[in-house]
Specification:
Distance between the termini: 32 Å
Radius of gyration: 22 Å
Order of helices and strands: HHHEEEHEHEEHHEHEEEE
Shape: elongated
Number of strands: 11
Number of helices: 8
Number of domains: 2
Structural class: alpha+beta
CATH superfamily of the largest domain: Chorismate lyase-like
Strand order of the largest sheet: 4-5-6-9-8-7
Helix content: 25-40%
Length: 251
């Protein structure tokens, strides 16, 4: 029993030391910790003891362990109010977070059947397909494909979406949006999106499907966002008068 107590004291001491270094900025948000073998040697413990310490830090939300890549300090806190009618990037920037947008492609294409059903368009109609990746905390975290219905598509197709949100571009083009319906579900990262997010296929993700409607009730935009489960989580703040939902950094 004394030996077990000593083992527990060692991994807790290691966890406390690493936590202090993270909070002091020795390891910055998003930065990789040294390899496990290097850490275990520096603390003079076995890999099993070190891994228990890392598990404790993971439970406390201070680190994120990514299979095949290593152990990283958790990204800074991010909150995205799901109840607001803003783009994800605008919501995060409004709260002071730096978000970088990479435009992977844009083209006016014939609408696939699945998208046509969401936009309530005919099979021969075209729409603007806009593909983007959102980066925060120094890494790609969100892959997003948006389809914008005509005639709005032609009005915004040349906009610079690295610095302008889709909603802002629509507003500038005279398209007023009234509401959006969004469904979020857990999923697994598929191979096509995995290469853009730098994570192995099969990693846990959130998949958000959103349809945005104009004042007259017509569907204007449909989006699918794939969000790394290791980077963000959904939080809820419940009260007697209602509930507030937000995105936050994964813990």
């Amino acid at each position: 029993m004394a030996r077990d107590a000593g083992h527990e004291a060692r991994y807790r001491a290691i966890a406390a030391d690493l936590a202090a270094k993270i909070r002091a900025g020795r390891y910055a948000p998003g930065e990789a910790l040294p390899p496990q073998r290097e850490l275990s040697a520096s603390y003079g413990v076995t890999l099993m003891t070190l891994r228990q310490a890392l598990r404790q830090l993971s439970d406390e939300g201070l680190i994120v362990q990514q299979a095949g890549r290593g152990t990283f300090v958790s990204p800074p806190h991010l909150a995205y109010q799901l109840g607001s009618l803003r783009s994800l990037a605008d919501d995060l920037r409004k709260q002071g977070h730096e978000v970088r947008t990479l435009v992977l492609g844009r083209a006016v294409r014939r609408v696939p059947a699945r998208i046509a059903a969401r936009l309530r368009t005919g099979p021969e109609e075209t729409a603007l397909r806009l593909e983007r990746v959102r980066e925060f905390a120094g890494r790609a975290a969100i892959h997003q494909v948006s389809w914008v219905r005509q005639p709005a598509a032609d009005r915004i197709r040349e906009r610079d979406f690295t610095g302008t949100s889709l909603y802002a571009a629509l507003a500038d083009a005279g398209v007023a949006v009234a509401r959006a319906a969004e469904t979020i579900r857990p999923g697994l990262l598929d191979a096509a999106v995995a290469r853009h997010l730098g994570e192995p296929a099969g990693s846990p993700v959130f998949v958000s499907d959103r349809v945005t409607y104009a004042l007259d009730g017509a569907a204007v935009v449909t989006d699918r966002a794939t969000i790394l489960g290791s980077m963000m989580e959904i939080r809820t703040d419940r009260a007697a008068t209602g509930a507030s939902l937000s995105w936050g950094a994964a813990s």
